[in-house]
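Milestone M4 deliverable, item 7.
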Amino acid sequence: MTNPVVSALFPVVFLIAIGFIAGKARFIRAEATKDLSNLVFMVLAPALLFRTMSTVHVEQLNFKPVAMYFVAALLLFASLMAWQGLNRRAAVLALAATFSNTVMIGIPLVGLAYGQAGLVTLFTLVSVHSLVLLSIATLVLEMVSAREERLAGRGGARHMVLTVLSAMKAGIIHPVPLPIIIGLLFAQTGWVLPEVVDRPLHLLGSAFGPVALVLVGAMLTQVRVGAHLGSALGISLLKNMALPTLMAGLGLAFGMTGLPLTVMIVTAALPMGANVFLFAQRYEVAQALVTASMAVSTVLGLLTVSLVMALVDWLG
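Output delivered:
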């Protein structure tokens, strides 16, 4: 009988490998990945997220594991800031060690491994994942940037409240959390999607996983790790192993069990999310290191996620 961890991970690895080969062979050119990314995030993901949440009632959602996930992430974020110091580089690298690729890798993996119930737990997190972590990262980065400017004698304090409010707005009006929220609101009405609408959404949602994973593989061909390998490996181990270990410890300490805890631990073990690079670009710090870390974290994730899933399966 096939091991359930292997059954869930093999399609993920296989599709990423296909994307990598297609990228190397230039079947998927670098300039085409942006269009594919838009297709995944603007069309396929909203269809899957809305359709899944359109049958879920709020009383079915369990927010305790989501809250515990953020406690674990923020503890690691704060620890890294304390270790590295109050500066932009430390803040970006702390975000890199705590921000998971919950959509492009997390949704296909959790769907394959834990089914519809696992996806509902994941989507509860996904609906606020970017909103919470990116808003906090924005606040910290704006504060340390203003501090660095004052120390450099340049003044020019930033309007942090407006910046954070803008980040929160962007975190809600976004193709990932917005369809989740709309789907939940629709579910509370008691209505059912008509077949003529549900069927196309099902087809689009079914395409999300394969296309997203192939795109991940294609994008890996565009990254150069080079001299940043050592540092990138350290950040990747924090992201892929330290965060799920912290999540597991906190969850067990507070009496969490079953599928919700499992999904949160596996989500914490996912590779680094792409939004971290956008922050590195915006604040002009550690861009090459973050790019290298994303590649290393994704490749390493094939091993570390397997290990975490096997351990969770064994403990459960």
